[in-house]
Amino acid sequence: MVRRAYRRYYHGLPCNKDATMSKNWSLFLVVAFVLGFALKSYLDLQGKVENEATPPTHSAAMLYGQDEQAVNIFDTEDTRIRVIYFGFTRCPDVCPTSLAMLSGALNELDDATKAKLRPLFISLDPERDDAKLSAQYAHYFHPMIEGLSSSLDVTTELAKRYGVIFRKTELKDSELKYTLDHSSYFYFLQPDGTLITKVPHTLTPAPIVEAIKTITQGN
């Protein structure tokens, strides 16, 4: 009997006891896999429902604007869409061009659409751009654009949140002493700070106008 089982095993035909154990083990693996997959699907679904029910929140970002007044740009009682541009007042070309395009876009909109927007210029150079200067600079391009400044820690954290890249570059033999190299985007945000979309640097107001109309159509 032992010899027969031995022969069957080595010819690829396990004995009845081994076959039963193998069958039970396979069944156990199948059941474990099904239960594991079901548990993962349930947890994924719960996480998705929770994420949909609880929108992302952002801590208050306190900046300072005209008359040195503290401004919380994530005040959800203000339901306007934020249109934010990060730059600095001594920017030689990119910032003036971008704010001119934003101004041009605002001038193409009707009053009802403009009432849904809160355009903001946030300085990345608080060392030289205080709240008063930032406000004056922004208003030069359009009276609707608020110019804001804060401490470098606050503006850096805010810039990183939306992927703004900037760095200080020393300027030898220049009265400016340094400049800032920075990315150039218009960031469209919900009142709580959630990013809706962003528009890259442009030489025409058209992409900004298109984004504004797309976002405000349902509002």
Automatic annotation (TrEMBL):
Lineage: superkingdom: Bacteria
**What's the protein name?**
Sco1-related protein
Report the sequence similarity comment from the record. Belongs to the SCO1/2 family.
Q: Name one Pfam family in it.
A: SCO1-SenC
**Protein residues bound to Cu cation:** 91, 95, 182
SS bond partners: 91-95
Q: Which organism is it from?
A: Vibrio vulnificus (strain YJ016)
| MF (Gene Ontology) | metal ion binding
Task: Tell me the InterPro entries matching this sequence.
Answer: SCO1/SenC, Thioredoxin-like_sf
